[in-house]
Amino acid sequence: ASYVSRAAEKLRRQHCCAQQMYVFVVTNDYKKAYEYTPQNFGLTSILPTATSTTNELISHAFPLVEKLYKEGSRYLKAGVILSDLVPENSIQRSFFSTMAINQANSLMDTIDNINLSMGSEALKFASSGLDHKWKMRQAMRSPLYTSRWNELREVI
User: How far apart are CA 44 and CA 25, in angstroms?
Assistant: First the structure.
């Protein structure tokens, strides 16, 4: 749910919606270091309507995670990939669902604005958990020279 929430927030910031979701895990169930052989597992879900609403994306991700989860496995990595992106204003919706979609978009805008002004994860979905004992490892992340001013190289 945490990864889906972050991905949905990025989608909304770019005014896009996803039509497809891929959830994956990487496991290593071997006990000895020399047997290190990570294994990748993943499942795809095609969404009925393109969306960037966090709760809707989470509801599609949970069944995939339940199918992937194996009791006793050691998980090294997990993630979600949203694909088949479309602009949010080009989605053809049902006549009867317009009001519910407008309310959901309004809710997502409110949550995003509060999180922007009060700090990341000031408001979040309960399914994301209250206390994270883990953090994303981003030490090997490539610099974002083209999209962040503070990571732009200086030539002296």
Answer: 12
Q: For the segment 105-149, what is each residue's pLDDT rounded down to a tens digit?
A: 777 877 877 777 777 766 677 676 666 666 666 777 777 777 878
The rounded distance, in Å, linking the Cα atoms of 100 and 93 is 11
**Residue with token string 């889906």:** 4
Q: For residue 81, what are the contacts with CB-CB under 8 A and spacing of at least 6? A: 7, 21, 22, 24
CA distance 29 to 49: 37
E strands present in 1-156: 16-27, 39-51, 75-87
d(CA 93, CA 101): 9
The sign of the CA dihedral 25, 140, 125, 16 is negative
* N- to C-terminal Cα separation, the chain: 44
- Convert the pLDDT of each residue in 87-117 to its tens digit: 988 777 666 666 667 677 777 877 877 777 7
Q: Do residues 82 and 21 lie in contact, with contact meaning Cβ atoms separated by under 8 Å?
A: yes
Cα separation, 130 vs 1, in Å, equals 12
Backbone angles phi, psi at 81, to 5 degrees: -125, 125
